[in-house]
Amino acid sequence: MTRVDDPVTDLIVFENASKTFVTPNGPVEASRDINLTVERGEFITLVGPSGCGKSTLLNMIAGIFPPSGGKVLYDGNPVEGYNGHVGYMTQNDHLLTWRTVAANIAVPLEIAGLSRGERRDRVAELADLVGLTKFVDSYPSQLSGGMRKRCALARLLAYSPETLLLDEPFAALDAQLRLRMQMELRSIVHSLGKTVLFVTHDLDEAVALADRCAIFTRGPGTIRTVLDIPLERERDLMRLRHDPRYVELTATLWDEMAPDIAEEEAV
Ligand SMILES: Nc1ncnc2c1ncn2[C@@H]1O[C@H](COP(=O)(O)OP(=O)(O)OP(=O)(O)O)[C@@H](O)[C@H]1O
Where is the ABC transporter domain (predicted)? Predict the structure, then answer.
């Protein structure tokens, strides 16, 4: 039975949310009638053709701009202005090249006004969480691609965001490194109980990481289907490729995407 004082489990709600940009060349309709509910602690992946409005959806949750129509709610309230509950990471890690790993991770802690001692302890904790303890004194130019991502992830977590908005964060990594980062990300977000919205063009990644996968139509994007991924929370991503359920789910996702892929080829 739901009690009045139960916490709201629907953390993010899109209700017929639409976005049209006004540009010098006329209006650009990016999203149309988006309906999606994300529960606290869920890992949702977003897939769809290029330009279908996936980043636009993340931007609306972050409060970078409001929807032109419909509603975007966070924890029961309309998102108005920047949403301080979310952390945003894009394909570019935006590390400060003149700062060490420790000093990069410390940026949000400095902004939050933590003392030097508190910052040192928190940076050590975050560096340990992402496996960068030995590299805290290195500069970004001395790091591998995966280490840079880990550093950016630690800095994002330093803000203590409730929700992570990740826009193709591993797109530039090679297959092995990407798999490692996927395993680490899942383990970190589950241990910390974060809610995640993760945009990807990689359909294998979309299945491997998600509790549910939202599939967009070609722009103006609307959500065609939300695919349930009924795999265990604690899943071994290394062995997943051999799991018949994974193989079938990935095939279903490819089938769902087929009309748009065929259309793209015909253009
Ligand atoms: N600030 C903006 N001003 C004008 N048009 C925009 C703006 N942001 C996005 N658009 C347009 O809205 C549409 C959706 O863009 P969006 O970046 O959300 O798509 P996407 O699905 O994330 O694309 P991709 O997979 O290529 O990153 C595109 O036509 C894009 O050109």
Answer: 12-243
